[in-house]
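dude i think i finally got it to work??
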Amino acid sequence: MGAFVISKRYNDEYKFVFTSRKGKVVFTSLSYELKFECEEDIERFKADIESANFLKFKSSSGKFYFKLMLGGNHFATSRKYTTSLRLQKGIDEIVRYGSLSETLDFSSNDFVFID
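look at this
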């Protein structure tokens, strides 16, 4: 199952990513000034996942990506995929596991990475 991971950007704003079961980033949210706004949007997305729209694009370099729309508003942008099939697999993973995924908070500096 995937996970929503909250973290801070370099400009001290918050964002979240949705990671796949294998730990790869599937999409990245827009920026949020406050952490609770980030948390609220994750919960809103989980509740309204059926109404999400995925607008598919192809970059000038030939990579595929999607913009996730929720309630008619741009919500997040996916990573770049090498094929349209992999893009569709990313979308399928969101639809299948998004509402069940846990939320992890890595926005504070209180954690330590251990090698």
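The helical segments are 35-47, 84-97.
im so relieved honestly
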